Amino acid sequence: MKQKTVIFILLLLPFQLFAQTIDELILNKKYDKALDYISAQIQEKPDAGIYFKQALVYRELSNPMLASKALEAALFYEPKNSLILADLGENYALLGNQYQSVECFRQAASLSPENLSLQAKLGKAYISIDDFQRAFQTFETIYRVDSVNPYFNKQFAFSAFRTGKPDLAIRLYEKVIAENPGDFTSHLNLISVYKRKKDVGQVFSSGNRALTIFPKNPTLLLRQADALFELKDYERAIVPYESYLSENDSTYEVLKNYGIALYFFKKEQLAIPMLEKCYAMVPDDPFVHFYLGLAYKNMADYERSAEYLLAAIACAQPVYMTEMYHHLGQVYGNNREFEKSIEALKKAYEFNNERVEILFEIATTYEEFDFNKTMALNYYSNYLKTAGEKAKNANYALDRLKKIKEDLFIENK
Fold this sequence. Notes:
It is a single chain. This protein is 80% helix and 0% strand. The chain is an all-alpha fold. The N terminus is likely disordered.
């Protein structure tokens, strides 16, 4: 009996030494030699373990294709090995085979449901294919077991955000940042969630908090500035835009938004050169023309204002025509070009007949400049009839109707 045991140990010893040699070669990063030993053992006695080591070496050599093939071979011997499945999922992900990756992680997670790390990898794989609902369900399950792991909570927050649960996303991101203030991506995403909630104050404060940790970071500055701009907090958007422009290349969109913000902040003298710089870069952007026209309008340079507003109309999409013609009509009126003013206002109403207050402006223009009292009478009547209860200037229109009728009666006597 003892003799047989000794013989078995002697037969087993070369394989143990062989395996130990491979492990040492991998540990010492002697990958070519390790692959030679592995190939020899595969020829002699293939199994899941040796293919797994081969995959490990190929992964270290940045060759996920060969690593995947090795892991596929390992699965032939151990098809229900969750560790091999998970590694194969990661290699598929590196190759861009996201759907194959999801399937590997799904199988691995089902084999080891208590392994939260595998569950998290499955959730992350769902995110990679934009299946945010399944990602949310996966991380929600993990959260019931472990609600303190910042990595799990970060993925849960993102999937909550992408499935329309901003309040939950905010709570989770705030928790993640409190535990790990250096998580740059979570700061960025939190600003985006607050923007979705239209919470201007939190966009401003969360952006400033992130900038204390990452001072003058251009990505953060733009995320905060653009969010404030979209939420129409132009005054506070100016500061991060200026900080960004002071140290980074001035891209067209940044210059345009900054120029428009300056206009809304009543800084026309600064807005005009900024927007004219944009005009030089992209001559056919209707928004640049439009806000230049408005800036010159506020500066009482009605001739330049009309030029830019006409240029805006020339290259604008129909959806913006009403606003542009409306301002052009006001510019012409301020410049005492009354016929042009009325023509532009009519165009504005033609493009959007729900803007009933434009009818009121046409009526007052006809009347104020003594152009045609009969037309003023008709437009006041049309305004009251069309606007109905929505007429914001109903009382004034009724008073003017009465007065014009009296004047016309006296004139015709």
